[in-house]
Amino acid sequence: MKTLIDSTNALIDGLAAIRRQYGVPEHFPPDVLAAAEAAARRVPTKHVDRTDLRFVTLDPATSTDLDQAFTIERSGADLLLHYAIADIAWFVDDGDAVDQEAWRRGTTLYLPDGKAGLYPPALAEGAASLLPAGPRPAVIFTTRIDADGNVRLDGAERAIVRNTAKLAYETVGEMDLPPDFAELARRIEAAENRRGAARVDPPEQEVAPAEGGGFQLLFRPRLLAENQNAALSLASNVAIANALLAARTGLFRVMPEPDKKAVMRLRQSARALGLDWRDEATLAEFEKTLDPADSSHAAFMLAVRRASGGASYVPYREGMVPWHAPMAATYAHATAPLRRLADRYVISAALAIANGQAVPATATAAFETLPAVMGRADARDGQIERAVVSLAEALMLRGHEGQSFEAVVTDTDDHALRIQLCDLPVIARVRGQGSKPGDRIRVRLTAADPLQHTISFELMGGAS
């Protein structure tokens, strides 16, 4: 859960209810913990020594499950990104207790009051995490980025690396980072723009006390270092996906463009928020104009994410080009193995391909079964995220029952209207008929229940 910060612990009771409702694991079984403790003592024996390279990590200050470390060097006009990825596969055997539990979980679940990890802390926050406490085993993927931002996987190896600095988004300075960090991010962004990519990275929402009592939802815009750091993962994942596709194997992350109905709803949301989306501009073009520091723009970015058809995983199929529309590229997940089960197998396959070896049979078999496992995990992630946002909205609106709000209709069905409040980042439904998308209406808040994470409105008058 990356879109809400609860620094005041205002959501604590509601979050406990959400954890119960969606079966968020509270702990690991004893046999899994014991197996993880034993695995954490394994000594790497298939890794070359790369501790002479100055790897650093860049994450939120409180992060302890560090998947990625990086360093950058020049190669003529090209940049070489050496991306060290936590080698969780070194510690986990196929079919052991830790592996079986990871297949049950699929992903790490993030909520504002804490996470439920994919792997036990002895691994995810200890022996496998790329912390600066000492050398760690990793898989280094080297991606070549040319002057135009085109990427190619140049090599991969298992290696021992040393994290020389645990950098934080909140405090990092330009001198802390490897040379050409900003240039690499610029090249990747330029290539995205040429491809017509339309990634949307909404700012985090924060629950904060409101003047006069109650609570409000505020936005914390993403920091420049966060956006630049995301370019490193994007470059590596695209390069790895292209290598897998060329080898006619792999597991890919795909996502369709929003359909016409979703785009129509988004246009009405933009109208509700007072945004100027020209009729001739596409959604991708309009997204380029958004400023996450502006609360109305930030609210629209959240609406875009909610309107998406959803991403999924697909294995390689002959004659099919897997496509991620927001990335405008073939794309794979390989850079967060401590948090996503699928990445472990993508890494295994990419490591083999880069070294001219056969893809392990375990990875090939996993590519066929992982889409269903990851689909269930993603669905639960999405349900929890929506529930948490609804909880925050209910908390913000509690005490305002009976108050009227202006809204714009974004969609309709036989019995209800989908609405976007004009002055708050709230999307809701209200029973009623006779309105059409784009109509401006007034609604009255009838209930706001944080424990049930629900809000209810009633229609007050006709459309305008």
What would you note in describing this structure?
This protein is an alpha+beta fold and 464 residues long. The protein folds into two domains: 4-256 and 310-397, no CATH class; 404-459, OB fold (Dihydrolipoamide Acetyltransferase, E2P). Helices cover 34% and strands 25% of the residues. The protein has helices at 12-21, 30-39, 97-105, 121-127, 181-195, 224-246, 260-272, 283-287, 295-307, 341-354, 361-397; strands spanning 4-5, 48-49, 55-59, 68-75, 78-86, 109-111, 114-116, 136-145, 151-161, 163-168, 204-209, 215-220, 251-254, 312-315, 404-412, 416-421, 427-431, 440-449, 454-459. The strands form six sheets. It has a five-stranded mixed beta sheet. Helix 1 (12-21) packs antiparallel against helix 11, helix 5 packs across helix 6 and helix 6 crosses helix 10 (341-354). The longest helix has 37 residues, at 361-397. The radius of gyration is 23 Å and the shape is globular. It starts with a strand and ends in a 5-residue tail after the last strand.
SSE layout:
Layout lengths: L3 E2 L6 H10 L8 H10 L8 E2 L5 E5 L8 E8 L2 E9 L10 H9 L3 E3 L2 E3 L4 H7 L8 E10 L5 E11 L1 E6 L12 H15 L8 E6 L5 E6 L3 H23 L4 E4 L5 H13 L10 H5 L7 H13 L4 E4 L25 H14 L6 H37 L6 E9 L3 E6 L5 E5 L8 E10 L4 E6 L5
Parallel strand pairs: 1-11, 2-9, 3-10
Antiparallel strand pairs: 4-5, 5-8, 6-7, 8-9, 11-12, 13-14, 15-16, 15-18, 16-17, 18-19
Helix pairs in contact: 1-11, 5-6, 6-10, 7-9, 10-11
